UniProtKB/TrEMBL annotation:
Gene3D superfamilies: Transferase(Phosphotransferase) domain 1. GO terms for molecular function: ATP binding; protein serine/threonine kinase activity. Residues 1-10 have a biased composition (Basic and acidic residues). GO terms for cellular component: cytoplasm. It comes from Curvularia kusanoi. InterPro entries: Kinase-like_dom_sf, Prot_kinase_dom, Ser/Thr_kinase_AS, Ser_Thr_kinase. PANTHER family: MITOGEN-ACTIVATED KINASE KINASE KINASE (PTHR24361). This is Protein kinase domain-containing protein. Residues 1-25 are annotated as: Disordered. Residues 1-351 form the Protein kinase domain. Transmembrane segments: none annotated.
Length: 372
């Protein structure tokens, strides 16, 4: 076995940390009165941060306001689609649920209010806490926590975890990516994570899994896209997010180089693809068609250089064989070879807890159980 230059157990969180008091999630009933809130920041045209001018005891000081289009539907439900999807799910600590949904002055637009998580999504969090600090690697213990907690999130929305609810649907998120997973400060040394933004979600049906769907963010989708209405596609996307935390890179080749290679080989236009018109832009088409590329994250620096592993100028940090193996399993090219979410929460979950206890003791295991 190769000699590892920086084994995660020796360099990351190897000393058990004292267990801090865990923050409780906000359970106070939320009533939204627009006059009690002011906009402090606009994330984009449809999402903004509101600050309370005064709050009831225990109420939030900040909430995220999201404008959602109300589409006609067979149920004549006046709520926006994302809110209707979330309503199919019971409460769970691995998913961002809406605090409230209210009408706006525009009858075609609804207003959804969500709890605000200051640490942001995992892409923002990684860039701020690690990339900007001399490209520090994300500690392996954090990645294990992410891996298991998001596996729990998938198992929950797919009906494999949680209370049995009459008529509960199996939900596919279909847009799992770093920007759709939020980092949560639970008051301990270690962060937790929540899945959010169900705007591309759908209910799973056996006949639907063979239907092609051009939605979501193609960079994070499996090689079999646009066949993404499957639980295996969700597992790929989870593995791709683990790959991103470990390497800082997506699981696809450089899209600009791929586009140039297509033109060099004589393809006059990307419109030569028979389904080009299914994509809203050339870049989205390229992201969908580009070959998937998965890097090993358990190689030492010399091996990476010898194999010419693509990187951002410095060797990728070396993580454990166990983390690499489970990530690689999720990123199998053959969808049938990927583990199920049951495999992840049971088998990978066992390994994750062993590794977390070894790396950080009891503190690393806080909030590793799903609650409903």
């Amino acid at each position: 076995m190769q000699q590892k230059h920086a084994h995660s157990e020796d360099t990351q969180d190897s000393d058990a940390q004292p267990v801090k008091r865990q923050k409780r999630e906000q359970q106070v009933p939320f009533a939204f009165y627009p006059k009690n809130w002011k906009t402090t920041r606009a994330f984009d045209d449809n999402v903004s941060l509101l600050k309370a001018t005064h709050t009831d005891r225990g109420g939030p000081h900040f909430v995220v306001k999201k404008l959602l289009k109300i589409e006609p539907n067979t149920s004549n439900d006046p709520r926006p689609f994302e809110i209707r999807i979330l309503a199919l799910l019971p409460r769970c600590n691995r998913v961002v649920h809406a605090l409230a949904c209210v009408a706006s002055e525009d009858p075609t637009v609804g207003i959804a209010l969500f709890e605000y998580y200051p640490l942001g999504d995992i892409q923002m969090w990684k860039e701020k806490l690690f990339d900007r600090r001399n490209l520090k690697p994300v500690p392996e213990s954090y990645i294990w926590r992410f891996f298991l907690q998001m596996a729990q999130a998938l198992a929950f929305i797919q009906g494999q975890l949680g209370p049995v609810v009459g008529g509960r649907h199996v939900i596919l998120h279909r847009d799992i990516k770093p920007k759709n997973i939020l980092v949560v400060d639970i008051g301990t040394t270690y962060p937790s994570f929540k899945l959010h933004d169900f705007g591309c979600a759908t209910s799973w049906r056996e006949d639907k899994q063979y239907v092609q769907s051009w939605c979501g963010t193609f960079d994070w989708q499996p090689p079999e896209n646009p066949r993404i209405n499957t639980t295996a596609a969700e597992v790929w996307a989870l593995g791709a997010c683990v790959h991103f935390l470990a390497t800082g890179q997506k699981t696809i080749v450089n899209t600009e180089e791929y586009k140039l290679a297509l033109l060099t080989r004589g393809k006059r236009s990307l419109r030569d693809f028979p389904d080009r018109d299914c994509y809203s832009s050339t870049d989205r088409c390229v992201a969908a068609k580009a070959p998937r590329r998965v890097l090993h994250i358990n190689l030492d620096a010399q091996t990476q250089l010898r194999r010419r592993v693509p990187n951002i100028g410095v060797p990728i940090f070396q993580y454990s064989d166990e983390l690499n193996d489970w990530m690689q399993d999720c990123l199998q090219y053959n969808a049938a070879a990927r583990p199920s979410v049951e495999d992840l929460i049971l088998d990978m979950g066992f390994v994750a807890r062993v590794m977390l206890k070894r790396m950080g003791g009891a503190a690393a295991l806080v909030d590793m159980e799903e609650t409903f």
